Amino acid sequence: MTTPALAYSVQDRSLLLPYYKRFLVEPLLPFIPASVNPNAITHGGHILNLGALLLLVFTARQGKSWPFIAAAVLVHVYLWCDNADGGHARRTNQCSAKGEFLDHGLDLLNATYISCMTVVTLGAPPFWSVVAAVVVPAAAAVTYWEQAETGVFQLGLLNQIESIVCLTVALTARAVFGAEAMAAVTIAGVSLPVLVLGFVTTVAMFGIIRSTMRVAQNRGRLGPALAPYAFGAAVTVAAATGALGTLAAIIAGAVVFIFIGIRQLTLRVRGERPLLERGVLFAAAVLGALAGHRILGGAPNAAMAQSIDWAAAGVVSVAFGGLALARALEGHRAVERLDRG
To answer: How far is CA 27 from the centre of its chain?
Structure first.
């Protein structure tokens, strides 16, 4: 849903998306009443995807199969909504800057939900859970940075729809076989959950590196990428050393990268270039200091360690969550002005 004021080119190399749109989206668009606002479809899909994540978070440990099947259904309805909103907007002449900003902003959240659902479904070891849950929103944030620098929105061979297909397979396997049976499957001595999350991490990291290379080839500024790189490394090391617990690291990492992505979107809407986020660098330094203290043998007792990691993650999450909300509202006001002409 691109308007002239926010014009940019898209290079989407997804393997499955053309077929998905051709056979599952476009034939159903005429059945959506013209009176339906495309943004309502976008919001509806986001709510369903969030609902799937919450369902898994609160029921995964109960050993029941139905939550995983229900989550699979919800994420597929979300996927349809996410691909139908733009087509419906174009078909009914309801394209707007607000819709484009909303679609991209919520895509950042939805990518985070999908990575977290994958982690919950597979029940992988803590370190790999943190890495996979953090690197996916990091890759999305870097993609928005690249878009702001080059004016091109790049999507690789394996992105949203491929991720959801893989998640569906994992959800179905978890419902049928259970977490223990999945963990018991090993290839070359490595468990299946670790292999899957390792693959997810590798694909996302490759995307981050390719984005950086394309910005360099287009003579863009690489300085702003220092903050997400530094924070990603810091939160990973903090989790690996035990300076941050698994859940605390996932929450802090996701919130910071959501902030970075929203910040890039807002700057692009305002026609400004990306900035070096010094606050993110400071947060990376704090987490790095905690990890360094743990490496040097400064491990407190278990209760104190848990208090420290939740305090650090809480401060980071509240601070950057608030900044992300402020930047989202700023971008929202900017696109409303664009739509008013």
So the answer is: 29
Using CA atoms, how far apart are residues 115 and 132, in angstroms rounded to an integer?
A: 7
Residues 251-295: pLDDT tens digits?
A: 999 999 999 999 999 998 888 889 899 999 999 999 999 888 888
If we measure between CA atoms, which residue out of 284, 322, 16 comes closest to residue 159? 16
Angle at 123 between CA 120 and CA 124, to 5 degrees: 115
If you write DSSP's letter for every residue of 218-268 in order, what string do you get?
Answer: TT---GGGHHHHHHHHHHHHHHHHTSS-HHHHHHHHHHHHHHHHHHHHHHH
Burial class (CB in 10 A: 0-12, 13-18, 19+), 232: buried
% of the chain exceeding 70 in pLDDT: 95
- Structure-token match 């989790």, residue found: 239
The amino acid at 123: G
149/272 Cα distance (integer angstroms): 9
* DSSP state letters, 153-191: EEE-SSSHHHHHHHHHHHHHHHHHH-HHHHHH-EETTEE
The sign of the dihedral angle between the CA atoms of 138, 142, 144, 145 is: positive
Query: Which residues, in sequence order, are bridge partners of residue 153?
Result: 10
Number of structural domains (the chain) is 1
The tens digit of pLDDT for each residue in 185-224 reads 999 889 999 999 999 999 999 999 999 999 999 989 999 9
**CATH number for 147:** 1.20.120.1760
Half-sphere exposure of 307 (CA within 13 A, CB side): 5
Tell me: pLDDT of 122 over 50.
Answer: yes
Q: What is the DSSP string of 56-81?
A: HHHHGGGT-SHHHHHHHHHHHHHHHH
Strand pairing partners for 92?
none
Residue-wise pLDDT tens digits, 78-89 = 999 999 999 999
**Residue-number span of the structural domain to which 209 is assigned:** 4-340
Q: Which of 155, 104, 125, 70 is nearest to 328 (CA)?
A: 104
Tokens standing for residue 195: 């292999």
